[in-house]
Design brief:
The complex is a heterodimer of chains A (87) and B (394). Chain A has 87 residues and is an alpha+beta fold. In chain A, the strands form 2 sheets. Chain A has a 3-stranded antiparallel sheet with strand order 3-2-5, with no helix packed on it. A two-stranded antiparallel ribbon of chain A has the order 1-4. In chain B, strand 11 and strand 12 form a beta hairpin. Chain B is mostly beta strands and 394 residues long. In chain B, strands 3-2-1-30 form a 4-stranded antiparallel sheet, with no helix packed on it. Chain B has a domain of 138 residues: YVTN repeat-like/Quinoprotein amine dehydrogenase (Methylamine Dehydrogenase, Chain H), CATH 2.130.10.10. Helix content of chain B is 1%, strand content 36%. Chain B contains 1 helix and 30 strands. The longest helix of chain B has 4 residues. Chains A and B meet through helix 2 of A and loops of B.
């Protein structure tokens, strides 16, 4: 997970987060239960991935950015990246 | 007069305080996060910032302990079913294959929370927020919960009630875009003026549309753009499609309203029923973004003129404020204490404020100037600040 999110959700720092497998939306909801408000940062009010956020399941980029239906398999890892630019 | 100035900047909020006759900045808060607007609620002292997170979505943040701690407010969201009609300018985003003449609909999400306004003194907890893409939100519990004002969102000038179905009228909010930052072309509500004498009476201003008024607490809205000319449009006197940059009113004479528009400075002495162009291009008063009006005298206003409109910088390298005390019939250039050579500052729409005899403005060059004598003389509060988006006395 991008370390920038730890500024807003310090409870997520320095830990490995394990949640039940399911869709990307399921996984993000489970993280939100640990850190309330988390999905407001990563998703917009339609539940779609924000423009400058990318997810991957292991080393495969998440394709469905709207409804987040891609499956995170048992034992898989969901990575959360952000684009960085500007000055 | 206020002894606090809140600066919304590209890198956070900077608060100046006056103590022992000098102004000192506190350490920056929300460091690194763009703050597009910051203000203090005069009713209860709550500090508000609008965070323009590039990655994590626009959010409000409030402090109820004078800035010691800040609390995320993520509850301002468009409700399910909120849509609007897209009319993009012909940029690379424009879809040349879209059906001609057919509205294109888009689900609304918040791009920017551009303005925060505080309700009437007898409505504690009432707050307003103006957004891109053109929604006015209202809270009655100090910001914990927000509701979209649907009569404005569903206005006939915008296509009608798109919650109920497809457009029943033409979208006329199609002037120049609110902001080209991040490729945003949607309308933006940047000005919210609550009548201090009547909580049910408000004006708002929308980039790409113009000014609207409600006299029934937001149940109905009427366009108030008579007399405003939009010089670059095919019909300069069209009812809609105007580009007010900022609209403000006189607290003690609320029928006196002012707007710095893309196409000049306009003044109304009848609650926006009629606007009159009062800019004097030969005197440099024409283009700019912010405008401020005196709290007692509705004929006295200040602007920060800029070189129109493709340049958007100080005129001839000299920064000045222009003041009128006669409803715009004449303007006085106030230059004392401001740089008069090699200055290229531009002051954005929320970047000027007045409180009693004090005025303050900040530029995107990171310069902040204060006057304590109604603009006659100025001194610099800081010249190495981040680009300034908003200046508000606390």
């Amino acid at each position: 997970m991008t370390s920038h999110l730890f500024r807003f959700f310090p409870t997520l720092e320095n830990r490995s987060i394990s949640v039940p497998s399911g869709s990307v939306a399921d996984v993000l909801r489970a993280v939100n239960a640990i850190a309330p408000g988390f999905t407001d940062y990563v998703l917009d009010e339609r539940g779609a991935l924000r423009r400058h956020v990318k997810l991957s399941i292991n080393d495969t980029l998440v394709v469905d950015r709207q409804s987040l239906s891609d499956r995170v398999p048992e034992g898989g890892t969901l990575y959360i990246f952000q684009a960085l630019s500007g000055g | 007069m206020s002894d606090m100035i809140l600066l919304g900047t590209r890198k956070g909020i900077v608060i100046f305080e006056r103590s022992n006759s000098s102004w000192r900045p506190r350490p920056i808060e929300h460091a690194g996060i763009p703050v597009c607007y910051a203000a203090r609620d005069p009713r209860d002292g709550t500090l508000w910032t609008s965070l323009d997170h590039g990655h994590w979505g626009p959010k409000l943040s409030r402090s109820r302990d004078d800035g010691a701690t800040w609390e995320d407010v993520s509850s301002l969201k468009y409700p399910e079913g909120a849509r609007y009609i897209v009319k993009y300018l012909p940029t690379p985003d424009f879809d040349p294959d879209a059906p001609v003449g057919q509205p294109e609909y888009k689900d609304a999400t918040v791009f920017k929370i551009w303005n925060i306004a505080f309700g009437h003194a007898d409505q504690p907890g009432r707050l307003y927020a103006g957004t891109i893409p053109g929604g006015l939100f209202v809270s009655d519990d100090g910001g914990d919960n927000w509701e979209l004002n649907r009569p404005l969102w569903n206005h006939d000038s915008r296509g009608g009630d798109l919650f109920a179905g497809d457009a029943t009228s033409e979208n006329l909010w199609n002037g120049t875009p609110a902001s080209i930052d991040y490729g945003v072309f949607e309308p933006g509500i940047h000005s919210i003026v609550v009548d201090p004498r009547d909580a049910r009476h408000m004006h708002i201003a929308v980039s790409s549309a113009g000014v609207l008024e409600t006299t029934d607490a937001g149940e109905t809205w009427e366009g108030r753009n008579r007399g405003v000319t939009n010089d670059y449009m095919p019909n300069p006197e069209a009812e809609w499609g105007h580009d007010p940059h900022f609209v403000t009113g006189c607290p003690e004479q609320p029928e006196h309203l002012w707007q710095q528009n893309h196409c000049g400075v306009f003044y109304s002495a009848d609650s926006a029923r009629n606007w009159k162009k009062v800019s004097v291009p030969d005197a440099g008063v024409h283009f700019g973004f912010p405008i401020a009006v005196d709290a007692r005298d509705g004929r006295t206003a200040w602007v920060v003129p800029a070189r129109a409109d493709s340049a958007r910088m100080a005129i001839d390298g000299g920064l000045y404020v222009a003041r009128t005390t006669d409803g715009g019939q004449s303007w006085q250039a106030l230059r004392s204490g401001l740089p008069q050579e090699n200055a290229y500052d531009i002051v954005l729409r929320h970047g000027l404020d007045v409180a009693g005899d004090r005025l303050c403005f900040g530029s995107t060059t990171g310069n902040v100037y204060l006057s304590e004598d109604r603009g006659d003389t100025w001194h610099c509060l800081g010249s190495n600040l981040p680009p300034v988006y908003s200046v508000r006395f606390g």
